[in-house]
Amino acid sequence: MVNSMTAFASANGSSGAVSWAWEIRSVNGRGLDVRMRLAEGFDGLEALARKQIAAICKRGTITVGLRVKRNSTARVAQLNPEGLERALEVARIATHEAKVEVAPLDIAAILALPGVFGTVEGEADPLSAVNDPVKKDFETALAGFAKARAAEGAALAEVLAQQIEQIDGLCARAAEVLDGRRDHVAETMRMNLARVLGTTDAVDEQRLEQELALLAVKADVSEELDRLQAHVIAARELLAQDGPIGRKFDFLTQEFNREANTLCSKANYTDLTGIGLDLKAVIDQMREQVQNVE
Fold first, then answer.
1. Spatial contact of 125 and 15, defined as CB atoms under 8 Å apart
2. Which of 3, 147, 246, 256 could bond to 293 as cystine, CB 3.0-4.6 Å?
3. 82-135 pLDDT, tens digit each
4. Which parts of the chain have pLDDT scores under 50?
5. Residues 154, 159, 163, 166: is their CA dihedral positive or negative?
6. How many other C-beta atoms are found inside a 10 Å radius of the C-beta of residue 196?
7. In the chain, where does the domain assigned CATH 3.30.230.10 lie?
8. How far apart are CA 261 and CA 224, in angstroms?
């Protein structure tokens, strides 16, 4: 299965007055580079997160972020006994000093007096209380991240498979034009030979045969086509493998490109040159895609 090195996933959670958000994102990288940005108070999760990431990822620059917010705590009602005692004492004194009959004390009025009854900020939940749910949400985000890498990898594999088919087809076309190219090269050699014989009084026949044989060898592209076909087989085998294949595939695209360059330089035939240029274009596109493969 092919995995992509580019992916993104997130997970959110809350408990009491604490809320948090995990984000995991990755881009291409030569090796595995994990960068952690955790909220203060959760540094203890870093080792666990790195271990779990390394278990599923072998390449890529991966950034993990954890944001934590402590919301405003609820206000709770609180009675001030000292304030209540003072209010009642004042009420008793007022009743004693009054020269007329006084109505019974109104408790609600007493409680409404300043300093007797009010609300205060509730105690904030300790961060340690949410450590386990925060850890669980990281695992949720990591599972989504792995799923995203696999989904993008499957799309990459489909594109690469199509490009390999294109290369295979272009190699077949190249093989088909070799007969026409052979006649073209032979005719070119005959014309050049006639030109040489027309301007030279004496020709060393043995040396001439050697030179013609050497030109024929240099012009032969059968080895390049054979190697391209071998690379096609190797590329298909790589796509069928499990685990990281990006580095091997990148090296293989370099080999593809080398053979296509040689084919173009030796073509000496318009049809074959055109096929060689098409090969180079497809190989270049394939190499761009391979940069995203783990």
1. yes
2. 246
3. 777 777 777 777 676 666 555 666 777 766 767 766 665 555 556 778 899 999
4. none
5. positive
6. 12
7. 7-72+131-148
8. 10
User: How confident is the model at residue 99, as a pLDDT?
Assistant: 61
Q: Which of 197, 244, 66, 71 is nearest to 141 (CA)?
A: 66
Query: Which runs of E-coded beta strand occur in 80-170?
Result: 117-121
What is the C-alpha to C-alpha distance for residues 37 and 233, in angstroms, rounded to an integer?
A: 43
Assess contact for 148 and 6: CB atoms under 8 A: no
Determine what percent of the chain is predicted with pLDDT higher than 90: 56
Under CATH, to which class is 7-72+131-148 assigned?
alpha beta
Classified by CATH at the fold level, domain 151-290 comes out as: Butyryl-CoA Dehydrogenase, subunit A; domain 3 (1.20.140)
**Contact present, 7 and 148 (Cβ < 8 Å):** yes
**Rounded CA gap, 148 and 128, in Å?**
31
3-state secondary structure of 67: strand
Can you give the pLDDT at residue 125? 55
Residue 120 carries which side chain, given as an amino acid letter?
V
| Residue 24 Cα distances to 40, 52, 62, 287, angstroms | 18, 13, 7, 26
**Length reported for the chain:** 294
Calculate the alpha carbon distances from 54 to 2, 31, 48, 65 in Å: 17, 11, 10, 16
Do the bridges between strand 60-70 and strand 18-27 make them parallel or antiparallel, or are there none, so unpaired? antiparallel
